[in-house]
Amino acid sequence: MKTLINPLLWKSLLLCLGTALSISGYAQTRVLTLNQTVEMALSNSNALKLKRASVDLAINKYNQTKDQSLPTGSVSGTFSHTENIANHIKLGSLDWILPKRAESYVGNASLNETIFNGFKLKYARQSTLLLSEIAKTNVILTEDEVIYTAVQMYFDLYKISQSQKIVQQNLMAVDNLIQQAEHFYSHGIVTKNDVLRFKLQRSGIEITASDLEATRKIVCYNMNVLLGLPDSLDLQTDSVLLKEEAPFSLEQYLDMAFSQRKELEQNTLQSKVHNFSFKVLKADELPKLSVGAGMGYNHAGSIFIPSNGTFIAPFSLGATVSWDFSTLWTNKNKLSEIQINQKQTSIEKNIWADKIRTEVNQAYQLYFKALNKVNLLHSSIEEATENDRMQADRYKNNVTTVTDRIDADTKLYQALTDLEIARADASMAWYNLLKVSGKISTITQ
């Protein structure tokens, strides 16, 4: 009975272990769609979180500027105690005897508000509000970069995965060729060299497979870091459809870019910031008007509020007009600096306009080039398939060399690999066209 139970126990344990390992292996693999990849990258990006924090900081600075227009007030109180060690004073006919000790209380409260300062605070508020808008455009620019990086990594992994599938098909085909060559060799139809040549071809394909797997692991690790996933997670891509949508004309893409690119919007906002900075300095040259109210309290005695009214509590109201006319000449170079900054911003706008035109045109032409390459590769695969079939028949009939047979097989699978890579590159060219047109964020909508 003992000899029967132990084998059963071992079988059960092995079955459970195998099941656990298979579940564990399955849990370590995750298939991602392109939209999932982009959404996870956006939610995990530390660079994006940093830019969003910059927006919060800019809004806070705007609120601080608003606070400067509020009234200012202060309250103070002072208590003093004096001990007179020598309290008897005689000066000629004067004979004074002072108290040995004395206390006094002094209190002040004031409230002030600026009525007119040349609209300096108004311009400062508008300037900081524009800076917060610039910070928001930085967030959008970073979002676009994160989206494009996620798309790039996704298609890199897709290209590797597709190449691996084709390499595995190639290995199976070469194994069949090896078996066929060994069969022919056993019947004296081909030489031993033919068998060795096919095996050598297989070794080369295995090296390619090893290189692809190493590259795939690197891309998977980088994607896990980008998406905030466990480092050991094995990622797989979903099926990808080639973007063959009829695009707009080049002029339409240029119009979209000039209306959507945030770099141009930033430039416009920065120009407005310079304008308000100029107005702030000009406002600094004008007179200021402020009003204030104050109340004091003075009492010499040991009790803070005496009952007999031996204290004074004056109340005052006033207005102040001031003019720092030295700003008429001290602000001269500051104003010149702002004007120089305005010119630089205008030049930068022209630079961005030229850059956008070249980027959009290049992306547009590369997209059509990629589509044309896909179409050409479809034709080349048909030709390579027919050539491989013909060489296979000729090799069976011993009317062609092993070199021609291997060459036909290699060209077929190379064409298949090139097609999958070209399809992925065409999709990337499409997303790059969206990026330079300022529309890549629409893929998440």
Polypeptide structure, described:
The strands form three sheets. Strands 2, 5, 7, 8 and 9 form a five-stranded antiparallel β-sheet that branches. Strands 1-6 form a two-stranded parallel ribbon. The protein has a two-stranded antiparallel ribbon with strand order 3-4. It contains ten helices and nine strands. With 445 residues, the chain is an alpha+beta fold. α6 crosses α9.
List the helices and strands and how they pair.
Layout: H1 2-27, E1 29-32, H2 34-44, H3 46-67, E2 72-83, E3 88-91, E4 94-97, E5 101-116, H4 120-186, H5 192-227, E6 234-237, H6 250-260, H7 262-283, E7 288-300, E8 311-312, E9 315-322, H8 327-330, H9 332-396, H10 402-436
Parallel strand pairs: 1-6
Antiparallel strand pairs: 2-5, 3-4, 5-7, 7-8, 7-9
Helix pairs in contact: 2-4, 3-4, 4-5, 4-7, 4-10, 6-9, 7-9, 9-10
Brief summary of the model shown:
This protein has 445 residues and is an alpha+beta fold.
Enumerate how many helices there are, as a single number.
Answer: 10
Largest sheet: 5 strands, antiparallel
Uncertain stretches: 1-27
**What fold name goes in the CATH topology slot?**
Outer membrane efflux proteins (OEP)
Please state the structural category.
Answer: alpha+beta
CATH class: Mainly Alpha
**Overall body shape:** elongated
Radius of gyration: 41 Å
How much of the sequence is in beta strands? 15-25%
* Whole-number total of structural domains: 1
Secondary-structure element sequence?
A: HEHHEEEEHHEHHEEEHHH
CATH architecture descriptor name:
Up-down Bundle
Per CATH, the superfamily is: Outer membrane efflux proteins (OEP)
Q: Total strand count, please?
A: 9
Determine the N-to-C terminus distance: 67 Å
The residue-averaged pLDDT reads 87
